Amino acid sequence: MKFTNYISNRDIYEKVILEQIPKAKKFVWIATADVKDLYVQKEKRFVPFLQVLSELIKKGISIRILYAKEPGPAFRKDFDKYPLLIKNLEKMLCPRNHMKMIIVDGIFAYLGSANLTGAGLGAKKSENRNFESGIITNDNKIVEPMMKDFDEIWMGLFCRNCNRKSYCLDPLIHTF
Fold first, then answer.
1. Which one of 25, 32, 49, 107 is CB 3.0 to 4.6 Å from 116, fit for a cystine?
2. Residues 61-101: pLDDT tens digits?
3. What domains does the chain contain, in order, with CATH numbers?
4. Greatest Cα pair distance in the chain
5. Is 62 helix (H, G, I), strand (E, B) or coil?
6. Whole-prediction pTM
7. Cβ pair 94, 65 in contact under 8 A
8. Which are the contacts of 20, defined by CB distance < 8 A and separation ≥ 6?
């Protein structure tokens, strides 16, 4: 059965981060403008979201993260604790990216305002969280164009004519 639902605040964390991402079978694509240390509940404790991603990679699931600026120091410190991420996490910095979306296996998607941060998607108390909203869907009429947008950026379609090259640390397409 197809669905598209509006969600906000705590529902984003529960329905996307806790329910859908851990159930991935093939891939997870994440687009975000900002990346910070994010902790999530796993069983009866809180762990870095990076641990969840590392466990998915260990199961053979491909993870891509498209982000607009370098992650903060706490994120980088946690990142270095997960050797599988260092070798296998696909990541790309694009300073023009401002999309916030998560796609799981090409059959589920979140599209909304939340960055990949504790205040946006993490297990923070309601008085510490950002006010966020978005939609979740399994309707391929919505998921497919989201994947197309993500993939076009990922593949460098817009790099050649980009006017923000001076901000791009590792351009996909080098123009001389």
1. 32
2. 999 999 998 888 888 899 999 999 999 999 999 999 999 99
3. 4-167 (3.30.870.10)
4. 53
5. strand
6. 0.93
7. no
8. 102, 104, 108, 110, 136
